[in-house]
Amino acid sequence: MTGILVLEQSLNGLQFGLMLFLLAAGLTLVFGIMDMINLAHGSIYMIGAYLIASMALASGSFWLGLALGIAATAAIGALLELTVLRRLYQRDHLSQVLGTFAILLMSNEVVRMVWGSQPIALNPPAALAGPVALLPGFSYPAYRLFIIAVGLAAAGLLYLMVTRTRLGMQVRAGASNREMALAMGVDVRRLFTLVFAMGAGLCALAGGMLGPLLAVQVGMGESILILAFVVIVIGGIGSIRGALLGALLVGVVDTAGRTLIPYVFERIMGPDLAANAGPAVAAILIYVLMAAVLFFKPQGLFPAHG
Amino acid sequence: MKTIGLKSLHFTLTAAAALLCLAGPVHASDKVKVGMLSTLSGPGAGLGIDIRDGFNLALKHAGGKFGGLPVEVIVADDQAKPDAARQTADRLVKQEKVDFMTGVVFSNVMLAVGKPIFDSKTFYISANAGPSQYAGAQCNPYFFNVAWQNDNLHEAVGKTVQDKGFKKVALLAPNYPAGKDALAGFKRYFKGQIASEAYTPLSQLDYGAELSKMRASGADAVYIFLPGGLGINFIKQFVGAGLSKDMTLFGPGFSADEDVIRAVGEPMLGMFNSSQWAHDMQNPVNKRFVADFQKDYGRLPTLYASQGYDAARLMDAAVRDVKGKLDDKTALRKAIAAAKFESVRGAFKFNTNGYPIQDYYLRVITKDAQGRITNRTLSTVFKDHADAYVGECKMPAL
User: pLDDT tens for residues A187-222?
Assistant: First the structure.
């Protein structure tokens, strides 16, 4: 029984971690390469989820909705970069925070106006709605397995892109030394727009994947944005590898904490106290993890800046 | 650079927390003013919207007047956030000077807004939240609950699960006052083994970790108290994980009413749940309520809508009884406590702590004659049931 519990929780942690990675990848690149704090990242995730949900409902096909929604969100991301964010690169971080925070507030209101304040229910495709028997006596939701597969594929493709392509080389150059990359003739403007659009597409992918598990609602971006920041701080800002490791760490620690801490507390202090203390401690566990990582490695696990 | 990044992040989070509440006012006189402070956004929005719509329908049935006086309803969204709700409640009682307050869905919000409302000597008619605190030690003459005390529906399922002979039950509720009340109520009547007991944050929508624990616990039944969007997600994920084959799912009416059925559909069939009301109750008031609710809003009403409807009917009766003299608090309190209105659930009266004494029913989700998936009332679990906290209530003077 416990073997199955550990296996199932590891899969849950992996699934959650990979989705955090999709969000954190875009965030860390924008932060690392453009030296830009983008609080509107969570809003792009929300807009992506809404676009995918409404296109999936309108077309009746989850897959079509997913594809169209990702493309549309990437386009919105590029547009946002070209019109607004580009003007913020030269400013200090405070202006960037205020500017992108304004975008966050505006997106919330726009989404509320367009879709209303009640959440939209997005259902997983019928083929993936049921359980899959992985071991005798242990079945796991097919949709969560699918999320893991998509997350791994996206991480693999990103890795190939960053390490094997010309674009990836420019991205890495920009992340480790922006001025030098500029001096070597990298077309930074085009690069920034591309990176931003890609980050937006990844956000939409995460939004579409998580939509059926969570709820597509106004404000969904804020809570997950905080986790994404935790991930990139743990992983080291600007590093894709760090983002992946940080995301998996946060995913696994959070999931394990929700199981183990109430269990341990119940042994120590009895069920009544544990019912109060357990969930509270489990909820702050990842922040304790972040503090611990920063204490030993102030630059994060894999700092991109030499 | 990194330090600046982190500092800015902190700054932003603080700023974000500070910048999240506002709404818009209007005012007049010689009328009954009702502050409808309810949850109209987020996963709990369906509940607040049903309370509001039920309330408005009763107002329409009463010709837009309570006891002959025109009614102004000021609707505000509490966003299910206690801090935001408290500010709005302050504004409603101090600036708008409403005569009644109602609408709060969640008990943590209720406990936050109670004090300013009671301090301003405004009557609060709860159409949902029924925290044990206000039923027992902290009972207040300005608080009435026209729905139930939080424990009640859970007590009814606890008794049902016990009577059906289940031995090992896994429990799950959100980590907030009503979640604690819920599982306390369930355990008051279920005497078997508790295989696992978990409390999740009210904002949590992914139950992967909890489902794994339930599977490992080897329970033969699962009891959840997850209202609105939380229940919708849980039941979908429960079925998706294949647990519905090994464990029988029970819930209160909150996890098995029309809002959840609409979103989940077929997998809900056969789920037992409890309620103080059902749309198939055969009294004339209820028939009119159900028929007109469907006509006006194009959906079957939930228990929340029935509670909103009854809250308005109670106010109507009380205002009529005091002949519109809303400033005579003693008379108004007496009129409310008398509960001289016809409730959609049939017999209804208030206990000394301002909470109901009423019957509770067992319902099951089936396909009805028209092929709709909906609730059917099976039996009465409790007759004239009072809450467990009334003995602790020493009602203070007005």
Answer: 888 888 998 999 999 999 999 999 988 888 888 888
Helix (H) or strand (E) holding A141: strand A138-141
Q: Which of A301, A147, A263, A151 is nearest to A214 (CA)?
A: A147
Q: What pTM was computed for the model?
A: 0.83
B111: number of Cβ within 10 Å:
19
Q: List the one residue out of B288, B257, B259, B289 whose CA is nearest residue B361.
A: B257
User: Is the pLDDT reported for residue B249 higher than 90?
Assistant: yes
**DSSP H or E stretch at residue B336:** helix B329-338
In a domain, A290, yes or no: no
| Residue B367 three-state SS | strand
**Which sign, positive or negative, has the C-alpha torsion A234, A239, A244, A247?**
positive
Residues B213 and B196: their CA atoms lie apart, in Å, by 8
- To the nearest whole Å, the CA of A99 is away from the closest chain B CA by 11
Domain-located, residue B10: no
Is A279 within 8 Å of chain B by CB?
yes
Q: In A165-239, which ranges are continuous DSSP H helix?
A: 166-176, 178-183, 188-210, 220-235
Are B134 and B231 in a shared domain? no
Q: Is A223 on the interface with B (CB under 8 A)?
A: yes
The range of the structural domain enclosing residue A94 comes to 12-218
Q: Which residue of A has its CA nearest to B19?
A: A105
Q: Report if residue B309 sits inside a domain.
A: yes
Pairing between strand B272-275 and B221-224? unpaired
Which chain A residues are within 8 Å of B1, Cβ to Cβ? Answer: 35, 305
Is the domain of B143 the same as that of B166?
no
Q: What is the ipTM of this complex?
A: 0.80
Residues contacting B86, CB < 8 A, separation 6+: B112, B113, B116
**Same domain, residue pair B111 and B200:** no
- What pLDDT, in 10s, does the model give residues B293-347? 999 999 999 999 999 999 999 999 999 999 989 989 999 999 999 999 999 999 8
Question: Tokens in use for B62?
Answer: 């009463």
- The Cα–Cα gap between B49 and B39 comes to 7
Residues B183 and B318 in one domain: no
